[in-house]
Amino acid sequence: MNVTSQSVDVSNVHKKYNSHEVLKGVSFHVPANTVTSILGPSGSGKSTLLRSINRLIPIDAGVIRVGNQVIGYEERGGRYHELSDRDMCRQRQRIGMVFQNFNLFPHRTVLQNLVEGPQVVLGRSKRETEAEAHDLLASVGLAEKATQYPGQLSGGQQQRVAIARALAMKPDLILFDEPTSALDPELVGEVLDVMRRLADDSETTMIVVTHEIGFARDVSDQVVFMADGVVEAAGPASEVLDPERSPRIGSFLARGSHS
Fold first, then answer.
1. Would the N or C end of the chain have less CB density within 10 A of its end CB?
2. CA distance readout (Å), 21 to 24, 44, 73, 224, 252
3. Facing residues of 230 across strands?
């Protein structure tokens, strides 16, 4: 996969819904070509933060950079100016996103789901994009499903198609928003296996919001633990996922071991 992976800097990010402050000054750094897993109890702000990174949710304060670009803004004369919708869409093209509920086009085949973005948004040729799409489907174990529709696939297969679709845009960064949470337990493993193989690809920067503690421990270069809208701990999994680190982390890990 020919991409240019990018680092991510989240600096003092705040987000409030009415009087409820969801993010309370979140900061952390994601080096290029690494995997960062974001863990924490429900309501800690994980998904809000992830969606802020590609500005699906605008933030109230702080700065998010992907590579040398400030997300949602351009810097002119020492001041930030909000991007137009067109420029924001162009910036967002470089950030892949895999959602909980797949978000595939139900009326298009698997192959059509993969090629639409590269053809319509990037203006690439049908021949080239279809060849790459077939390669991507093979890489996620779905080479034989190209002509089927999403409704004909299991949830795990649909999520693997969604991962392939994100990769088809050759993003600098891929965001995963609890990609296994909508799946039946017996289908979770096939999606995590694809993500593990992707994590082994040194060209890819991944940020994964997940409740899969084992995946985070095994695959992540860094774990960020969030609670109540703040980062409670960030660093190597062996350090952050230590039940002795804090009562809150210990409680979270204990719940995860019984789920």
1. C
2. 7, 10, 22, 19, 22
3. 227
Residues 6+ away with beta carbon under 8 Å from 212: 180, 188, 192
CA distances from 223 to 83, 88, 98, 188, 203 (A): 31, 28, 19, 20, 19
At the fourth CATH level, which superfamily is domain 8-257?
P-loop containing nucleotide triphosphate hydrolases (3.40.50.300)
Domain spans of the chain, in order of start: 8-257
Average pLDDT for residues 211-232, to the nearest whole number? 94
Helix (H, G, I), strand (E, B) or coil at 192: helix
Q: What is the dihedral of CA 95, 23, 208, 114, to 10 degrees?
A: -30
R_g (Cα) of the chain, nearest Å: 18
**CA distance linking residue 71 with residue 215, whole number of Å:** 28
